[in-house]
Design a protein that fits this description.
The protein is α/β, with parallel strands linked by helices and 179 residues long. Helix content is 32%, strand content 21%. The chain has a 4-stranded mixed sheet with strand order 8-7-6-9, with no helix packed on it. The protein has a 3-stranded mixed sheet with strand order 1-5-4, covered by helices on one side.
Length: 179
């Protein structure tokens, strides 16, 4: 292949093109930085933050514990720039998964946030239908029902049951394989 002749005119055109490209990339970079920093400041405006957390539908689960866990998830920033408590970019899936894991009594959870910074957690709790009390029936009648757990109609063991005297719930005594 032949080289293109390197006349002074061609070198001058190449220099101008290079200079234009560098100016374009410089302006683009500073515009991008300006946009990111601007969005970061916008995400931290108090009017756009979740400021109130309301829990509805709980009877057994401690409402204060739920609020505490949600506030913990709303702390901090994404990439050190964007506030997690902003109602547009809050970690909804993380909150949902965390609450489902920490509170197995939650059957259904709906998270809603309105534009004025109020988060509403609508919780439906599981209802115990039976009790699971271990693999062996205690030999001492006073110990019957001491270490029991609630089971719902689907067979899901979800929470430690308080002591019930009498036969309020049907008690299961069987070996359970967790698989």
């Amino acid at each position: 292949m032949r080289d293109i002749p390197q006349s002074p005119r061609i070198l001058e055109i190449k220099k101008k093109q290079f200079k234009k490209r560098m100016i374009f990339f410089g302006v683009s970079f500073f515009a991008l930085v300006f946009i990111v920093v601007g969005l970061s400041f916008l995400s931290k405006i108090n009017k756009l933050k979740i400021s109130e957390i309301v829990v509805e539908g709980v009877h057994v689960i401690d409402q204060e514990e739920v609020v505490k866990e949600v506030k913990e998830k709303l702390q901090g920033n994404y990439l050190y720039l964007f506030s997690k408590s902003n109602f547009l970019i809050y970690p909804k899936n993380e909150i949902y998964e965390d609450l489902q894991t920490l509170f197995p009594r939650i059957e259904n959870l709906d998270i809603e946030v309105d534009k004025i910074g109020k988060m509403t957690l609508k919780i439906e709790e599981r209802k115990g239908s039976f009790l699971y009390c271990g693999s062996n029936v205690p030999e001492n009648n006073l110990m019957v029902g001491e270490n029991c757990y609630f089971i719902n109609n689907d067979g899901f063991i979800f929470d430690k049951a308080p002591y019930f005297s009498g036969n309020i719930y049907f008690k299961f005594y069987l070996s359970v394989n967790a698989e």
